Amino acid sequence: MSIAIALDGPAGAGKSTIAKRAAAALDYIYVDTGALYRTIGLAASRRGVEPVASPEVEEMLKQITVDLTFNDKGEQVVLLDGEDVSGEIRTPEASMMASKISAIPAVRAYLLDLQRDMAKTHNVIMDGRDIGTVVLPDAQVKIFLTASPEARAGRRYKELVEKGMDVKYEDILQDVITRDYNDSHRETAPLKPAEGCVMVDTTELDLEQSIEKIISVIKENI
Ligand code: DC
User: Fold this and answer.
1) Which terminus of the chain has fewer CB atoms gathered within 10 Å of its CB, N or C?
2) Nearest Cα to Cα of residue 116 among 27, 40, 4
3) pLDDT tens figures, 42-97
């Protein structure tokens, strides 16, 4: 049987960086489920479809294909109708679109099997918002990773500036607060700690300390 680690938490808590490194150390596959919601958000942007529950969104879901693959470095690649959109889904606009589109029940249902199938066939560390609560409630280890909004906005700001993007810290902080609110107040699969999860707060931890902490939580629980 394969092993599943569910890693949930708000935007910018460091989930993806930490999970990638922990997965490499433990020889698991890292699955970033936010990329799937971002890809559907991108599909909606491109088609001019409003990110609200509607027949248009349901029609769009019938027409598109979203695939999750890995390149030869083991990095996740998401394909929208066969096109690699892994770079294009990373802008602040795509983040906001993903947050809105992910509140739509039909979108969540559409992505459920894709996520569960990955966990059936591989040992995974799966990062998201509802992995421990909805997607993989039987995961061997469930972790809720968080940090203060200011710490998370600061990290996201640094990351985007390093990529050469022209962004303001205040805007990023506002985005973090808005997305936290959207993600934890939606009716379907809201962001909340899963029953039996281990809470890890990284506000006062640097990256290496956070990775060490997550690896030790996983090792203690499998
Ligand atoms: O982790 P991220 O920032 O790439 O996620 C983008 C958006 O997708 C985020 O606003 C919440 C949503 N999301 C979700 O609802 N469920 C998941 N399992 C992963 C992400």
Assistant:
1) N
2) 4
3) 999 999 999 999 999 999 999 999 999 999 888 899 999 999 999 999 988 888 89
